[in-house]
Amino acid sequence: MSDDSPLGIDALLDRVRAGYARVEAHEAYEAARAGEALLVDIRYAALRERDGLIPGAVVVERNELEWRLDPQGSHRLPEATGHDLRVVVICNEGYASSLAAASLHQLGLHRATDLTGGFQAWKAAGLPVTPQVH
Questions:
Q1: Residues 37 and 28 sit within 8 Å (Cβ to Cβ)
Q2: Any alpha helices (H) in 1-134, and if so which ranges?
Q3: Which residues are within 8 A (CB) of 134 and not within 5 positions of it... i.e. 6 or more apart?
């Protein structure tokens, strides 16, 4: 395979995940409880409606993530206070969140990571979930 060959998604995931330490559900929960991490749920609305929400997590649609978390951006969230912010990105199963965390690294958020196994791992670990109010 030549150096300019397409990677493929599995190789791309391996490459981006090698650039940071992913977190397990209980570690993310404890970091958020201690005020040491911002949990960011990027799941789409149908999944949030079906499975519920993680209490305290900020919901940001994936297509808005970089704009909402860039500390220098005009559309940033109030929580996006600086490049040292520890962000834990959460998708449904821990795949899209890896690519999202890598994108946040490109914006200078060097402590961005994602939740191994995503929301489903959080739920399986018995951590708090609340129904989404309609």
A1: yes
A2: 9-17, 25-33, 45-51, 65-69, 96-106, 118-124
A3: 49
How many residues would you count in the chain? 134
Beta carbons within 8 Å of 65's beta carbon, 6+ residues apart: 40, 42, 89, 100, 103, 104
The average pLDDT across 87-104 equals 98
Separation CA 107–CA 33 (nearest Å): 25
Residue 1, pLDDT > 60, answer no
C-alpha atoms less than 13 angstroms from C-alpha of 83 in its C-beta half-sphere:
7
Copy the structure tokens of residue 53.
């929400």
Count CB atoms within 10 A of the CB of residue 85: 17
Q: Do the Cβ atoms of 36 and 86 come closer than 8 Å? A: yes
Burial of 120 (0-12, 13-18, 19+ CB in 10 A): middle
Phi, psi of 20 (to 5 degrees): -160, 165
For the entire predicted model, the pTM comes to 0.93
**The pLDDT of residue 2 is above 70:** no
Which single residue is written with the structure tokens 């500390």?
71
The greatest distance separating any two alpha carbons of the chain, rounded to the nearest whole angstrom, comes to 51
